[in-house]
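Dear all,

This email documents one entry for the complex benchmark we are building for the journal club exercise. For each entry we list the sequence lines for every component of the assembly. Then comes the predicted three-dimensional structure of the complex as a token string, followed by one or two observations. Please use this as the template for your own entries, and keep the labels exactly as they appear.
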Amino acid sequence: NAGVMQNPRHLVRRRGQEARLRCSPMKGHSHVYWYRQLPEEGLKFMVYLQKENIIDESGMPKERFSAEFPKEGPSILRIQQVVRGDSAAYFCASSPEGRASYEQYFGPGTRLTVT
Amino acid sequence: LAKTTQPISMDSYEGQEVNITCSHNNIATNDYITWYQQFPSQGPRFIIQGYKTKVTNEVASLFIPADRKSSTLSLPRVSLSDTAVYYCLVGEDSSASKIIFGSGTRLSIRP
């Protein structure tokens, strides 16, 4: 059973461009979570999604950031008009339906660098 | 979500047993205690979870006293590869929800 997959692993964008980060949860998992980790800081929750639904987006910046988890395909975290402060590691995690919520399986992350 | 307090950093040597204690005075009846490990440049990895007394798996043991106001993650015979940040989390486990990560404990293992 493949783990959580994220791509790209590294992404470089210039200020003002768009960044699209993809996350494929573990097989059989229907819950997806996105977290952001700034350099030398802890992980911060951004958004929690189930298929076609955003359940909790309390950690998402109000502007420029959006997330989706379509019925088919990976979950996408989209950052429009990136700024240098968006440079961070973005981790995706998944958990199965009906299983322990604190037992989440994390992907390897996407490291976004904004130049 | 109950607030947790754990040491910012700890040092130890290869072959030693390492115990990391986490305080959670406001833990609620339905809360579980969960520990994660994060290596540099990697995503966190679930280590162990418990509710009371003692839980053991192939990686670690988790000791929880009767009042549940603290817990201790025990790593037996650590090696250099155990150098990582360890996060203690407390919360209700009845349904999937976000994880609030604190600062964690940065464990450094020396030869």
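Observations: The interface with chain B takes residues 4, 31, 33, 35, 42-45, 48, 56, 58-59, 89, 91, 93, 95, 97, 99-109 of chain A (CB under 8 Å). The CA atoms of residues 84 and 90 of chain A lie 14 Å apart.
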